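Form 7-S
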Amino acid sequence: MTLVDTHSPDVGQRLVLRLWVFVWIGLGLLIPGLLIQNTTVSLGFTISSTTFFAVALVVMGINRRYLASSAHFHASLDVFVHNDAAPTFFVSDDGEITYLNHAAIARFGDALHKSLVMVLSDYSANPVNVIFRLQNKARKARAASEDIVTDQGHMRLSTHFIGPKGFIWRLEDLVEHQSDGTAALETMMPMLLANSAGKVLELNRAFRNLTGRKVDHLDQLFQSLPVHNGTYQEIATKSGLTSMRLQLLTRPNGQVEYYFEVGASQTPSLFDELPVAMLQLSPLGEVQSANRLARQLLGDVLKPKARLGDLVRGLGRSVGDWLDDAVAGRVLNKPEVVQVNDNKQDRFLQITLARSEGQTNGDLIAVLNDATELKTLEAQFVQSQKMQAIGQLAGGVAHDFNNLLTAISGYCDLLLLRHDEGDPDYGDLMQITQNANRAASLVNQLLAFSRKQNLQPETLDLPDIVSELTHLLNRLLGEKVTLTVKTGHDLPQIRADKRQLEQVLMNLVVNARDAMTEGGEVVLETGRLELAQDFERDRALVVAGTYLSIKVTDRGTGIAENRLSKIFEPFYTTKKTGEGTGLGLSMVYGIIKQSGGFIFVDSVIGQGTSFEIMLPAFERVETSKVEAIAPPAEKLAAPAKEGGVILLVEDEAPVRAFAARALKMRGYTV
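Output:
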């Protein structure tokens, strides 16, 4: 059967009819050319007439060859597909059907010269996208195919690219067998097809009849995503919410078919309603089913056909090794803490693997408990222990090092007594003294962090201290950075070491300056803070009461979130190599803690950093007068008699030797 024999004229044949217009125009121009006596005018009509005749003859010749070629192509195609049981079309590049075989005519009627989109519109919810997608694939790979969901089940669309002529399309009905051997065509099960993003691509008539509406996305159908195979879902149907069992079939391209079992029990399974989050796992760790609480606990991490190793990762050993031991019966009923593979937040689970009674195929039951809060508390406790250990280490090192520096500085002072400024060695001795003093300053910072320095607390009014420091702070900031001081009202007094508190403020202001390399503004703000109740922050418990708040804020580069928990540790710095010792903030931390206060930091990359100090308010307590029994002041202040005997006690040998020598030089018997 060929197109020419059995169907109406195609494009080439219609073009022949239109070319006769050129012939009649040529004939119309030829008659005046023969009748007009003027040679020039007559010649013009004759040439024009001849041109139209020539164009018509050339195009008709080309068209005859095209018709012959097209007819030959369709005849050749018809030889192969004439009796094919699957409807087959030849479609031009612009989507027009120019050939149908017998199966196509029987199913779609006389669809010649119709659009393929119109033919498939009764079978696909979005035929334009399907056709466009397959034609693009076929242009690159010469052929393409895709399965779509229709009212009768599945249909496979296949297309072959024939070059400029167009495409050969073949439609094949598929019968999808279920596990019980019945066919989807017979059950007419409501179903839809969706991509991995949840967009609904196809849905059949049974689904439309069930819901009475069209669904564009899965979130319009399900209350929470993702949904899982074998679970019961509440579906909004024409008759109201109905609990239906869901069956999923995942295609190789990631698209998922959703089948809704209308005849299934409307009562959710006991497993799904258990008050404990549970998973059913295969011996290889594949998630066979998850109950409602498990789905809520895992959230978006739980994907269809996921394995336990895809959901979580072990903190000590791999999930695969753990599963192997569980299948072998070595670690059953022993909880394991794992971390959820969630890029959005840190989540931890405590999972216990067990076997169901009577289970012989190695399947496992996983009981899940949220351990995020437990791990957070554990991390806070570890951090607290680490800071305490570092403080003890720093204090011990600083104490021993301070003894060495005392001996170095002492012997250097003894040498300076025997050398005047004109001596060649005097300059070298002064360099030793100055560097020993710088080292002693670092030691004092370590002692401040470890809270082993000797503070001299006194009652202070902060505005007075800030006022005295303002001039010095402005000099430290330089020309590009300005200092703005905001003093609150009714500030309480505090009890602290004035010199150490000044050092704290200077360190914070200088750090703020260094964070703003292009210049900016440092804000030093003080205020009264009344806490009506206790609150916790950054592993610290702040009890209710009155506090003096000191904030130092900059608009600099900011500090990364993963560094905030480390900035108070000794020798840890966010500055470039060579630009900081890493002891400034550790000293600030130690002084504030030793003064009974708290320090917190907030920072955002690119927006700046704010340090807040909270010092408890000092309240005077009236006490009854009690006469102290003490030696007279004149006795305490009386100088020792020269040449007296002194008992010197010192466990560090270099310090003891230096002190004894210095005292002997003063005439004492040591």
